[in-house]
Amino acid sequence: MKQEELLKQVINELFSLDNLHQEYQDNDTHYVVDTKKENNKLIITITLNENKDKKEFERWVNSMNGDFFNEVWESLSEEDSLHSLDKLYNSENYREVINKFKNKTKEIASNKIKELQKYLD
User: Fold this and answer.
1) What is the CA radius of gyration of the chain?
2) What per-residue confidence (pLDDT) applies to 68?
3) Would you kindly state where each structural domain of the chain is located, as residue ranges?
């Protein structure tokens, strides 16, 4: 019953406006709500904009070998606490974590390649 009452209030409020443009941020998800009233018709458009940088990074991380991921993550956690990395990743400065992780991945991968190249000679 509460949902119906809430929906009725929202609809009444939206109909009382000629139009509305509102943006909402919820962690990594960004919503844009637009309404337009035409006579007795209310048109509502809700657009979902996800953080593409984070989604792409998370896909990249998920494609990594588990042991290699753990090695990179443990190496990062020696430099910064996991809590501070998580907090930074969930802020507007999330790119710092992505850059740190990718740089550390390249460093460790390069060292592994150099080590393995000894066996090719």
Assistant:
1) 24
2) 94
3) 2-50, 52-120
Phi, psi dihedral angles at 120 (to 5 degrees): -90, -15
pLDDT of residue 1 exceeding 70, the answer is: no
**Helix pair angle (82-89, 66-79), 10° resolution:** 100
**How far apart are the C-alpha atoms of 76 and 85, rounded to whole Å?**
9
Closest-CA residue to 54 (of 105, 88, 24, 104): 88
Residue 14 has pLDDT above 70, yes or no: yes
If DSSP codes are grouped into helix, strand and coil, which group holds residue 20?
Answer: strand
Indicate the average pLDDT of the chain.
Answer: 88
Distance in Å from the first CA to the final CA of the chain: 75
23, β-bridge pairs: 32
